[in-house]
Fold these 2 entries.
Entry 1:
Amino acid sequence: MSQPVITDYLFDEAAYNTHDGGYIPLEAPTTSPQPLAIPAIATPDRVEGQDVYYTITAQTGEVQLLPGAKTKTWGYNAPLLGQTFVYHDGETVHLHLVNHLPEVTTFHWHGLDIPGPIEDGGCHAPVYPGEARDVTFTIHQPASTDWLHAHPCPSTAEQVWHGLAAMAIVQDDHESRLPLPRNYGVDDIPLILQDRRFHEDNQWDYRADYDPDGVQGPTAMINGTINPYFDVTTQKVRLRILNGSNRREWRLHFSGDLPFTQIAGDNSLLPEPVTFTHLMITCAERQEIVVDFGQYHPGDRVTLYSDDVPIVQFRIRDFAPDHSTIPAHLFDVPEYHVDPDLPVKNVVLSGMDEEVMIDGKKFDMQRIDYEMPMGKCQIWDITSTNDMVGGMIHPYHMHGTAFQVISRNGHAPYPNETGLKDTVSINPHEHVRIKVLFNVPGVFMYHCHIIEHEDGGMMAQIKVVDPAHPDVQYHLMDHHTLMQAFAKERGVAMKDLWLGGMESYKKMGMHM
Ligand code: C2O
Ligand code: CU
Ligand code: CU
């Protein structure tokens, strides 16, 4: 095997979050190592042929994250983060979504190609405390690692910070036949990367930590575990890495510069595997890698770092030799033919802090910023104009679709973004071109996935029109209604309501 090994992070170094004045470096853990939590797989309430029924409850909880007081947390069918939802291509999923939280939330399926705005679960599909909503959708997409998170604008960031983020895995026949690790919890491991700051009595305090460019904390939290270790009992381990952080970019590498192979990113396998020693993952992206521990012996330890801070320790146990090889070809990327009648659509991300915008505007839930026909492919050109102090990298995300990255400033995209994606990072002044094609109709959001930028208005929405049903009307919520709900639930007057994203509109003298 003479595959080249990529040894750098590919992105514009000058724009790394480390150069931001507000950057909060991770600190090495000081508490004793804990076994890495593996979220349980959600079991359906019932299965009838291809119809699968689940109840998903957003709930409050308490978790012993650090010695001393338990931390108050939120989660899905779990006190923190959530169960892992495993869906299969072709099945119809029926969800009973229950809100046991003290405030309004939504259930957004990041990465699922399902209609919007209700099934998609963005801000137009609120579930109020004590209430429930039922949604049904059919899974029709390739195997991938996706996720569920709250999306009640402008308080998405705070709810994710409380813990509302869970993994969803789509399986299909093609991926199931490939010789890849697939034993969940044993050699197929979710790795949800987040960071938090613990305040008095081990509690989180989102408002105290608020930064309009994204909230960070110095403590790495992986699958809701502080200072985790994982017992390696197979030579090869597949890691489904999800950057579930509000703001942090993670720059991953192993001790000894152990190479690893990326097999998937966001919405599909990669056409060909790519081998790295260093890998950057920005907010909301997923990267699946296979790590071969064949050169190690029982008792050895291999550490995964972000920059120079250890985040997960792999403790090598006994394992049987594994001579399988990762196939040189993993996935046929579907051919998207650009519709000659659709011009290139430009998207400009601008500003930092409170000034963030898309195409010179802040998000308005009632405004449709763009319309596009379903089933037709169009090139979108995404750029970022901001270059203050080196600028920053904005992870650009679209709901309801899986796109193909075709170029970065006219050059080939990075070798690990050759599959289907829903989030792509934009370096300052870079033009990233993507092929966009929606297979489902509805109103969908597109935005920066630094979640505070999204709440702060760096977000817009598209209406995707099914030519067979061009007149469908969608009921769109508005910020004011959601904010009134938050005020009522928190027992404060509207003028005393604080939601992170509101600041960004206020400071710009704008109304929500
Ligand atoms: Cu992770 Cu608007 O989405
Ligand atoms: Cu999304
Ligand atoms: Cu951004």
Entry 2:
Amino acid sequence: MSNQRQRALDVVQKRTTDRVNAPSDKISDFFAADVFDMNKMRSALAPETFSKVQSAINKGKKIDVETANQIASAVKTWALSKGITHYTHWFQPLTGSTAEKHDSFFNAQKGVEILKGSALIQQEPDASSFPNGGIRSTFEARGYTAWDPSSPIFIWGRTLCIPTVFVSYTGEALDYKTPLLKASDAINKTATKVCQMFDRNVNGMSISLGCEQEYFVIDRALYNARPDLVMAGRTVFGHHPARGQQLDDHYFGSIPSRVYNYMKDFEIECLKLGIPVSTRHNEVAPSQFEVAPLFEDINVATDHNSLMMDVMDRVAERHSLKVLFHEKPFAGLNGSGKHNNWSLITSTGVNVFQPSSSAKENLQFLTFLVNTIKAIHDNAGLLRASIASAGNDHRLGANEAPPAIMSVFLGSQLTAVLDALENNGDLQVDKGDNMYMKLGIDKIPEIILDNTDRNRTSPFAFTGNKFEFRAVGSDQNVAEPMTVLNLIVAKQLKEFHENVTQRIEKGEDKKIAIVNELRGYIKASKAIRFEGDGYSQDWETEAEKRGLPNVKQSARALDAYVTDDAKALFEDFNVMSALELEARNEIQHENYIMKLQIEARLISELGMTQVVPAAIRYQSKLMANGSALKDFGLDNSHVKTILEKVNGHINTIQTQVVEMNKERGEVNKIENTRDRAIAYSDRIKGKYFDAIRVAVDKLELLLDDEDWPLLKYREMLFLR
Ligand code: ADP
Ligand code: MG
């Protein structure tokens, strides 16, 4: 057997399971031990200083230098007491991972450990090494990171990490967090105003997010033996195994012990970091799993998701495992996504997406439900763009994950409620009438979603007391789709508030005005509601009839970010300028191109240097055997048949690789980044990737197992 493949398999046979023990049986003993959280701040800071931090967090107030110095000093003392010598500003640049640059507390001149308030508040990492989409001309290669006090400081590894935003000197956002904070602020304002129509005591909203994270785990030696996994995060070749996921036996089955210990280990690390991980289970595909923390404030949840992915990656090393976050590491098997559970909770503690026993709260519930649906309807293209990536292209529209068509699932009970509201016509409400009863919204039963009502094929589903955006890619920073979601709903709520106010000014009763406005939205946004099977061909046809966008390729979906409407929307709410949108668009297209470029190179290299040579070796064996059979006067036609098949596939691979590389030369010359990205999608990926893969995968089924150079799916997915 091929050396590389055999060696990797030998290593795996000898693996043992490392048992993992938690620091204590009680999670509360170590939860957030590595976080400089409110409790630690309260006890470390003078009361006045602490209350200044609190108002910075809750009201976004600026922190003065003196306060910053006191906080910095307290943080440093805490870190030193835990044996930590370095600190870093921790941020999420547009590369997609997290970034840090470590500085020592030790000041050699003074001979002591120091953390100044100014260093806590602001740093200047060299921004030129991060993508900026051409925002900075070369002479202005500076950017700075600024502390975000609303996300707690933590210790990860041997370093004190200070969550920050990352912006250019001219003020443009160079990270994911800045626009998210601004969009959250926008929805906070407009949602609060809408809530005040129902309850004057509401003075703010908290936006909640809980991310379910899917991932694959494979042995590290096996991972290292597949150059495509190492370089591209996904296998560009590989026939799916005889036993894939058709038995559905992996889902909710028992977790293999090595993976179980890995999970336990990274969960402990997460808990120490204050990430409230709570559920773990197997996913649909072999070797696929899911982890979900409890929901938190959207900014913290977003930081936590990035941090958790980093923790999962590093802890996997200890267990000689590799965690894969790619949206589609293995063709033919389920891909990985991130389900974003999202809701809005008032300062008085009411989840506006929770149907209630109070009629008044139900009208508020319907207001938010219908406005969200309307926002998705009006901005489906933008929402689709927010989850665009080369990796996610393999999931969306691949008939096993949410399709590229955005739609909203409500379940039968709520559908009936909205239908009734729609058909009620203009209400006549007389004095003394119970309007809620007349409208049929005096009581909306608590939505109990049984499994039949839980449509897993919907990209945007209402799940009882929250919406769940399921089309988000597993490798993605969730800040991007959450920025868009917050923004489009913010805009919709603003419009709603204005329209209802106008109606009231014209003399309509407030409740009637609200209901009439909602009725208009229900009608206008009906096309986006879909209760059926989102994976089916019928839905694609139906969606087209309804005029819903269905942009399968991310390179094209990204256009929605730079339309005049999108620019106006982002600018109106001060989330991003047209320039920032253009820059991000450029970065995303570049990124898309780079991903496909790497894959194309891998396909050509692995195809020509591993697969074809193996096939030729096998051909020689066949030819020797065929000639020998002939010498003995025996029938050798079966040998000839195999030879012909092998020959055909070699020929396909060889000619297609040559063609692809030639065409790549042409495509690379296209100046405009967007056009080049689309050309990569249509002319390189679309034309050649599958054609070559089919030939390679057929060879995998023909060649002597001994000769096959690449680890097979069954070996990667079922051995542990
Ligand atoms: P599922 O059955 O889809 O796995 P769960 O009830 O387990 O759903 O919740 C999945 C995620 O949704 C968890 O992260 C959970 O904390 C989160 N979640 C629950 N309620 C809310 C809410 N009101 N807002 C946001 N996220 C929520
Ligand atoms: Mg879910």
